[in-house]
Design brief:
Length: 267
Amino acid sequence: MSIPAFGLGTFRLQGQVVIDSVSTGLELGYRVIDTAQIYENEAEVGQAITASGIAREELFITSKIWVANFARDRLIDSLKESLKKLQTDYLDLTLIHWPSPDDQVPVEEFMGALLEAKRLGLTRQIGVSNFTVDLMQQATAAIGAENIATNQIELHPYLQNRKVVEFAQSQGIQITSYMTLAYGEVLKDPLIQQIADRLQATPAQVTLAWAMQLGHAVIPSSTKRANLQSNLQACTLTLSDADMALIAGLDRGQRLTSPKGIAPQWD
């Protein structure tokens, strides 16, 4: 099994806003929805999915276990709570959202519990998020690289995270890129705009196509119907090797997400 290349993110969207975004996305043809326990929107996402009437087997639903739920006796119960909110019997992918702060819960313990959740049929695939090379090494030592479907990380033209990407790929672990548009920062980049103009595409389409062409999955979010529709078209856009090389040159190690007390020592 692999991770679908294109999905809909729901970070920072709550209440009616997330219901509308997911409902519109599903109507437009999105079938991959990414949420997390800490987003506090799983119930609304579940509501929108159920109201859509789309068959469960057509969807790919991802959620992430929050750090407070890592202990072996808590992780599976918290996942069952997420399933209840999302109104589904299983997730397609369940991720460890961030590493355990100060290693309060050992990697071996929460990865073991997550693998147990997979054995119980609560999730089809499992993975990690915001893991460094060292943390990925610990996770693969604990449960085997073959059981880790993806590492979901901040990745955009300004932060290409090559060290983590290379290690993950060497282990057969797919990368999922979040914040691929860098909160809209890269959309203003003159180079991205120039490529977009030449290809008669939008800067967002170019950036999303770039990440997918590198083999990464993307999960952009939007509250606007026009953007949701436009972003989908990134799936049919192909960049030349020359354009890919130009975008590779934009990397400047600009990290936008590093929550205090939770973020690991980045590579």
